[in-house]
Amino acid sequence: MPSWYLGKIRYQQPIDEMAIGTRNESLIKQKAITEAYLIDAVSYTDAEARLYGIVADNTPDFQVTGLSPMRLSDVFHLETGEKWYKCKVVYTTEDKRSGKEKKVVNVMLINAETVKEAYERIQDSLKTMLVPFDITDVNLTPILEVVPYEKDDEALSPNFRPLSEVAQEV
Quick one: pLDDT at residue 19? Predict the structure, then answer.
């Protein structure tokens, strides 16, 4: 099961130049920019390292201002859609012990262009569920990019060998 972390960074971006003083000195005005990224990682350390790897190429002077786990039951990444929406889906199940109805809340993320499109996409993605559900919330998030976990084969040393090869030598 994926462990999602919401990483936030902050950096300064130049806006424009203003002439100051009589000697025609120029001053570059800076604007603070905050960006959010959702990263699938195995730990806080892994999430922070992956965040640095993603952002460092395009943004020279930045700092990580926050890194927190985000509980998501599913992330739907479709072909089109620049914005990410957080959807709250509620369905009812029966508790086996007591026999009472129990509401289960799932938070899911989906990309779309509008709230309406996000609602329709999440509804379409969940149409095969056997239990009835309600989509209670659809909210726009500040997330710019979702980075799923990918096995990095280049990270392994060339000296590493599969355990099956080592076991045959013994």
Answer: 47
